[in-house]
Design brief:
Elements: H1 2-37, H2 51-58, E1 61-65, E2 69-72, E3 85-89, E4 100-105, E5 110-123, E6 134-141, E7 146-151, E8 156-158, E9 170-178
Antiparallel strand pairs: 1-5, 2-4, 3-4, 3-5, 5-8, 5-9, 6-7, 6-9
Length: 179
Amino acid sequence: MRTRGKLALTVTTAGALAAFGVWTAQAATNSDAAAADAQPSLVETFEYPGAAAIQQNYGVTLISGDGHILFADCATPPSGNIGLLKVRTTEGIGAGGNGLICFKVLAGTGRLDLKIPAVYEIRGDGLSSGAGHKVKADLTTDAGAHSTVDVNPSGSTPVGVGADPNNAPTTLLQLTATP
């Protein structure tokens, strides 16, 4: 009888160890699979998607934004009384180097950080009086003089040398749409 007891204990212990080994191997496999399936940490940096290609093709530096003001093809047709926000520069940038850069405002509020040199005019996106988004433009000169202007929602707003030929050239740094 004693031999049977030892044998039963040995078999039970071996079975438990084997089960533990299978469980440990299964847990390790699941852990490895979970690590392989894990997505990288999603931290919004607000970097502008496709900024490098836009810089290369159009000469415009797009830094970051909230996705509510987007770089747009200036040939984009209007939607009702709303067209595109148009920035004019004396630099040979934009499609074909024509000095025209366009943006589409998608919401009542939005922000886009960018860098467009030698800006002289910003045209609101409204195509009729009373239409268009309220937009503020932050600008700077090479000497570091900063200014903020309210863009006419349905007309043109001269800035820098466009406002006065004696003014220093201005670089557009930010567009902000406000309600």
